[in-house]
């Protein structure tokens, strides 16, 4: 890969300052960015590691809200969120593989917004708030299509706040090679309604299946969506599945997530 | 004789200690003084004319030593092909030049155009990005059937067409087969694709070359299954280096599966470049590069017809195959769809008439050659799929239809209608064993249990025949091989009785250092720890052909036995002298020479010492020393066979297939180390399940490789595999090699794909779905689409 | 270039690295610890698996500079102090859990990480834990058995004698 200057600040402020220069890029766990750099598809001149910032680490639950530091690894979320938000912890426990989970972070995943990543479905499906060094962004406003978010240049995801649902579950149908989600569905039931977020399937990236949300809000049971279907228009078609197959999986996985939600 | 050291013992592998402690020495672990690094600039276009290569900016970049293009190889030959197939009209195949670096045209994504040699790898990569290459794109040739139509764009302008050859076998049977199919009681037809695969040994290829000006000698360290073959091909045909000036070393090699048999351009490049730059040159493939530069496997499009009479006896098989050669002929590519495929089309059956037609086609894709099984999986897949389909069509148990048509145990040796003679086998025994292992009788109850959970259960059977240890050399020479197919061994007994065996076979995971030692130890009656196996270095071992085609124990092991027999014969002469007895009365047992009918004895070590300290020695009759070499050329192939049975469960909601169990009941003849043999079967079956369910090499309409990394090429993971249930207790020893062995390396990959697909079809049909074929890989989306078509 | 220091297999080491130097490059090229292998460039094969501060990571997907100050363990540090094979290493040999040996260092490091957290894993837990470690030789059968055995659980004998 191209060479770069490596800096590892210990505070958010230092990181933001380091990112002011041209061609500077933040890196958290690097589990996606680093392979991209190896392929020379990304070539920052300065790489700002966020792994040394203590304030961006950790999981805490207060008043029905789970707050996760942006640089918290998937492995940490999998264990520390389990008692508070098992649906989210279960999702984190199955991202990538054990080594990836020890390095990859929630902030990095949300900033990258890979259309097949798991975390975007949890953030959108929970109506989470993405906290940056500069502002707070509602998940509904944050995800803006494949690899596109509301983040400005140099803006860092410092944390995420998840309202804890009454019941939730994530169902991932794995793409057999990458083990990313060929399609993944996150379902969360709140007092004021149900949210259903789908990853891996759409060319627009993560999205909410609003018809299912309405049906499930009225009747939180797999039967409630029996009569619904998802259009194949705009779904991803590739080696591993056609648009119609992905559209079909959305319904299957949503039913399974509802059945499994606890 | 320690129980765990001889033939038949599951001796733990001695090579494991270095691998488990990080002390293996793979090619990429070798770094030479003053070494430079090569980075290949490869075509990102499938087909095009090179207009210009501008290296001027790159030349002046930091660390650049030299930039090479085809101009630097004008004196070199092309990469040779090791097998010439003759077509059904008696004409030799079309054989294009395969240059080291592209000359004028690029013919597949990955075709190397230029190479930067620099002080560091990153400097070489940086400079490579600064090379400006202007290519006029041409229409890519991708579809095999379209490629051989009149007027099709040609991959090679100097050939008459994209047809490498049109091969018929057995050509004299052609009309009789047509007639038999026309008049058959029932004909089952199946069209299928044998999916293109990437071998993907976990160690990517590496080549490091070092030229010594002082001695005008070259050393090449390379990830090869057969260093002598590389020395011969590269030295004699590409770079004109005589063998005594070229040493090729294949140290620890991290898997091959066929992809490391061939002589590759990168090996010739680093060897030549090392002389030009006067320093060692190292090239290490990335995995992404491996996908577009390692030879691929399979890629056949086939139509097979199976005819039977009113008693369900097979009367004829006719099969038409288009075999993709890719853009150039890799080393053994032409032999795979022909002699390693057509000769197996009788399978385990008494089918009297077989005709095989193969059209080999050039396309703008990565070259295709042998991958674990090589031709035999393609034969087995189509035959065992069509037999299964036939059984379903006529409403007969697939096991029963096979049994009815099997060659019977008393019919061996059996001459097939496809030119080969099976020496031994007992297909009824392996089938019965497999069905017993899978508890066939109670399968219906398991189907019901799955159904209760909303799942569709299916059972698939395949019974394979394989031909290993391809030989003899004079025959394969007539068939077009440009090499001999013997194997060699030198047994060097040291003065104190320990032994070094230099074998021409190469171990890259097969455990020869352990199992070969077991054989020699058993023959002499000493502890296996007294025997070392040396391989992988042309400066140490006699000329050998290496390891592929499940040949190592059957051919290399036989050479070692022959050399050891010579040792024992000579040692007996020495022992006779020492004991003042007649040579004919000397017996060797448990490392002791005795004189029959007496209590006289002399130990192995005393005899070996006498050979090297020949004070009391018959110098007038025999030479001192105890070292013998043998070259073994088999008189026939060996024919392993076996019953493979797969049980699956299909999720009707998603089409996802789970392999619940896999059974392999093999006949490998005699077995040297059961632990190693079973490990070979496990790995082969996993690769076969991978082919059947996960792996696929796909190019888009522009010839771009869509499955060019592990992100899209689905390698089997631990969670994809069941525990395997393998058995090798049915043994009909080979009659024509001294160990009675048949070879076990490829069986798993040959027998398993049809078993998996047959199981999926069985599950779907039992579930009421009208599906009689799904092409591999039977991925969830394909299964779901077949169920919902 | 910047200077980094870390503890590798119990020894303090330091070196000069570029920003882009990967941890695996530092281990293999600077420290000559060539037991850690590189089998892919997309962070999937796991041949490069090592432990950093006790956690299993892919050393091809971590910059050396990120490991500054860390405690790193590689396959070369896995054997017992007297040089004998560790329990996991010995189980891999006893149950034929390796063939070509190339993925093996990563497999062993993944296995020891699993057993550190889960001393008696089920077969399913073992298979799931190996999601990021690809073996092309063994079909995983004997790797799974070796890990079961290393955890002190009964497994069938390796092969019929």
From TrEMBL, chain A:
Keywords: FAD, Flavoprotein, Oxidoreductase. It comes from the Bacteria. One of its GO terms (molecular function) is FAD binding. SMART domains: CO_deh_flav_C. Residues 1-167 form the FAD-binding PCMH-type domain. Its EC number is 1.2.7.4. This is Carbon monoxide dehydrogenase medium chain. It comes from Actibacterium lipolyticum. The gene is coxM_2.
From TrEMBL, chain B:
Pfam families: Ald_Xan_dh_C (PF01315), MoCoBD_1 (PF02738), MoCoBD_2 (PF20256). Residues 21-139 form the Aldehyde oxidase/xanthine dehydrogenase a/b hammerhead domain. It comes from the Bacteria. The keyword Oxidoreductase applies. It comes from Actibacterium lipolyticum. Keywords: Molybdenum, Oxidoreductase. The keyword Oxidoreductase applies. This is Carbon monoxide dehydrogenase large chain. Coiled coil: none annotated. Its EC number is 1.2.7.4. GO terms for molecular function: anaerobic carbon-monoxide dehydrogenase activity; iron ion binding. It is an enzyme of class 1 (oxidoreductase).
Automatic annotation (TrEMBL), chain C:
The keyword Iron-sulfur applies. This is Carbon monoxide dehydrogenase small chain. One of its GO terms (molecular function) is anaerobic carbon-monoxide dehydrogenase activity. Residues 2-78 form the 2Fe-2S ferredoxin-type domain. InterPro entries: 2Fe-2S-bd, 2Fe-2S-bd_dom_sf, 2Fe-2S_ferredoxin-like_sf, 2Fe-2S_ferredoxin-type, Beta-grasp_dom_sf, Diverse_Oxidoreductases. SUPFAM superfamilies: 2Fe-2S ferredoxin-like, CO dehydrogenase ISP C-domain like. It is an enzyme of class 1 (oxidoreductase). Its EC number is 1.2.7.4. It comes from the Bacteria.
């Amino acid at each position: 890969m191209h060479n770069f200057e490596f800096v590892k600040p210990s505070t958010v402020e230092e990181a933001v300052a380091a990112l002011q220069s041209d061609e500077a890029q933040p890196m958290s766990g690097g589990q996606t960015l680093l392979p991209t750099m190896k392929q020379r598809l990304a070539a920052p001149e300065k790489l700002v590691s966020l792994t040394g910032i203590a304030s961006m680490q950790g999981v805490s639950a207060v008043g029905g809200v789970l707050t996760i530091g942006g640089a918290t690894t998937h492995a940490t979320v999998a264990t520390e969120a389990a008692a508070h938000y098992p649906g989210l912890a279960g999702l984190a426990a199955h991202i990538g593989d054990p080594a990836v989970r020890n390095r990859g972070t929630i902030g990095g995943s949300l900033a990258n917004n890979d259309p097949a990543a798991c975390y975007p479905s949890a953030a959108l499906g929970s109506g989470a708030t993405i906290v940056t060094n500069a502002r707070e962004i509602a998940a509904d406003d944050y995800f803006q299509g494949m690899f596109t978010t509301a983040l400005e240049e140099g803006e860092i995801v410092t944390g995420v706040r998840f309202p804890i649902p009454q019941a939730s579950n994530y169902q991932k149908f794995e793409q057999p090679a990458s083990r990313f989600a060929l399609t993944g569905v996150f379902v969360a039931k709140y007092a004021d309604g149900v949210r259903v977020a789908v990853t891996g399937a759409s060319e627009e990236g993560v999205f909410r299946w609003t018809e299912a949300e309405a049906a499930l809000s009225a009747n939180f049971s797999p039967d409630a969506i029996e009569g619904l279907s998802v259009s194949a228009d705009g779904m991803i078609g590739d080696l591993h599945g056609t648009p119609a197959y992905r559209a079909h999986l959305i319904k299957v996985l949503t039913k399974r997530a509802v059945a499994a939600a606890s | 004789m320690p129980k765990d050291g001889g033939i038949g013992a599951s001796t733990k592998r001695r090579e494991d200690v270095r691998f488990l402690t990080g002390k293996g020495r793979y090619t990429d672990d070798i770094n030479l003084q003053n070494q430079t690094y090569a980075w290949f600039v490869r075509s990102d276009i499938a087909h095009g004319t090179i207009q210009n290569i501008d290296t001027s900016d790159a030349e002046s970049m930091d660390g650049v030593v030299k930039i090479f293009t085809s101009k630097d190889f004008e004196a070199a030959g092309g990469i040779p092909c090791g097998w010439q197939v003759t077509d059904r009209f008696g004409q030799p195949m079309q054989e294009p030049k395969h240059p080291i670096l592209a000359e004028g045209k690029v013919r597949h994504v990955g075709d190397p155009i230029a190479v930067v040699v620099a002080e560091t790898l990153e400097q070489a990569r940086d400079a490579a990005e600064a090379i400006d290459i202007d290519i006029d794109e041409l229409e890519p040739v991708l579809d095999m059937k379209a490629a051989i139509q009149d007027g099709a764009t040609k991959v090679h302008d100097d050939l008459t067409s994209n047809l490498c050859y049109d091969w018929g076998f057995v050509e004299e049977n052609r009309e009789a087969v047509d007639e038999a199919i026309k008049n058959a009681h029932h004909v089952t037809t199946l069209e299928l694709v044998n999916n293109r695969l990437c071998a993907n040994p976990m160690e990517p290829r590496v080549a490091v070359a070092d030229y010594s000006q002082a001695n005008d000698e070259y050393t090449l360290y390379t990830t090869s299954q057969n260093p002598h073959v590389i020395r011969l091909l590269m030295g004699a045909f590409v770079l004109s280096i005589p063998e005594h000036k070229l040493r090729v070393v294949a140290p620890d090699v991290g898997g091959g599966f066929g992809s490391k048999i061939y002589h590759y351009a990168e090996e010739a490049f680093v060897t030549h470049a090392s002389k030009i730059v006067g320093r060692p040159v190292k090239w290490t493939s990335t995995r992404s590069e491996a996908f577009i530069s390692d030879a691929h496997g399979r890629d056949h499009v086939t139509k097979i017809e199976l005819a039977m009479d009113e008693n369900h006896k097979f009367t004829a098989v006719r099969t038409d195959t288009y075999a993709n050669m890719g853009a150039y002929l890799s080393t053994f590519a032409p032999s795979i769809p022909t002699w390693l495929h057509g000769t197996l089309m009788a399978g385990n059956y008494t089918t009297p008439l077989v005709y095989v037609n193969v059209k080999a086609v050039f396309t703008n894709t990565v070259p295709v050659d042998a991958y674990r099984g090589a031709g035999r999986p393609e034969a087995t897949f189509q035959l065992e799929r069509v037999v299964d389909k036939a059984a379903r069509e006529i409403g007969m148990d697939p096991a029963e239809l096979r049994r009815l048509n099997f060659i019977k145990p008393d019919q061996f040796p059996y001459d097939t209608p496809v030119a080969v003679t099976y020496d031994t086998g007992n297909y009824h025994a392996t089938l019965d064993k497999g069905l017993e292992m899978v508890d066939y009788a109670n399968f219906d109850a398991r189907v019901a249990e799955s159904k209760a959970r909303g799942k569709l259960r299916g059972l698939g059977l395949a019974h394979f025949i394989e031909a290993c240890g391809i030989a003899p050399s004079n025959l394969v020479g007539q068939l077009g091989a440009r090499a001999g197919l013997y194997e060699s061994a030198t047994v060097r007994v040291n003065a104190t009785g320990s032994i070094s065996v230099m074998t021409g076979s190469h171990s890259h995971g097969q455990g020869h250092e352990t199992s070969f030692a077991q054989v020699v130890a058993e023959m002499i009656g000493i502890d296996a720890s007294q025997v070392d196996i040396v391989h992988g270095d042309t400066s140490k071992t006699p000329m050998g052909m290496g390891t592929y085609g499940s040949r190592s124990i059957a051919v290399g092991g036989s050479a070692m036995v022959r050399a050891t027999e010579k040792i024992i014969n000579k040692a007996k002469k020495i022992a006779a002298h020492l004991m003042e007895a007649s040579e004919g009365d000397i017996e060797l047992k448990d490392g002791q020479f005795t004189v029959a009918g007496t209590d006289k004895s002399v130990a192995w070590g005393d005899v070996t010492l006498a050979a090297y300290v020949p004070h009391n020695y018959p110098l007038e009759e025999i030479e001192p020393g105890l070292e013998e070499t043998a070259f073994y050329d088999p008189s026939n192939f060996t024919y392993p066979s076996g019953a493979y049975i797969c049980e699956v469960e299909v999720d009707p909601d998603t089409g996802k297939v789970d392999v619940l169990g896999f059974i392999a009941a093999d006949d490998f003849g005699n077995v040297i180390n059961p632990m190693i043999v079973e490990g070979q079967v496990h790995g082969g079956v996993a690769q076969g399940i991978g082919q059947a369910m996960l792996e696929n090499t796909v190019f888009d309409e522009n010839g771009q490789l869509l499955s060019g990394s592990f992100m899209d090429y689905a390698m089997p993971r631990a969670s994809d595999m069941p525990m395997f249930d393998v058995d090798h207790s049915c043994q009909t020893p080979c009659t024509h090699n001294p160990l009675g062995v048949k070879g076990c390396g490829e069986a798993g990959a040959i027998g398993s794909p049809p078993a998996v697909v047959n199981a999926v079809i069985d599950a779907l049909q039992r579930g009421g779905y009208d599906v009689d074929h799904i092409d591999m890989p039977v991925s969830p989306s394909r299964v779901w689409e077949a169920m919902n078509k | 270039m910047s200077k980094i220091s870390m503890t590798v297999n119990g020894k303090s080491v330091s070196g000069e690295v570029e920003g882009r130097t990967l941890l695996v490059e530092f281990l293999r090229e600077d420290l000559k610890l060539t037991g850690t292998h590189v089998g892919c460039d997309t962070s999937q094969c796991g041949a490069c698996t090592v432990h950093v501060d006790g956690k299993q990571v892919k050393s091809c997907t971590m910059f050396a500079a990120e490991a500054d100050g860390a405690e790193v363990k590689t396959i070369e540090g896995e054997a017992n102090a007297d040089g004998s094979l560790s329990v996991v290493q010995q189980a891999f040999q006893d149950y034929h859990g390796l063939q070509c040996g190339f993925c093996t260092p990563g497999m062993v490091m993944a296995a020891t990480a699993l057993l550190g957290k889960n001393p008696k894993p089920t077969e399913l837990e073992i298979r799931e834990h190996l999601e990021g470690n690809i073996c092309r030789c063994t079909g995983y059968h004997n790797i799974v058995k070796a890990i079961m055995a290393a955890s002190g659980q009964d497994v069938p004998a390796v092969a019929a004698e």
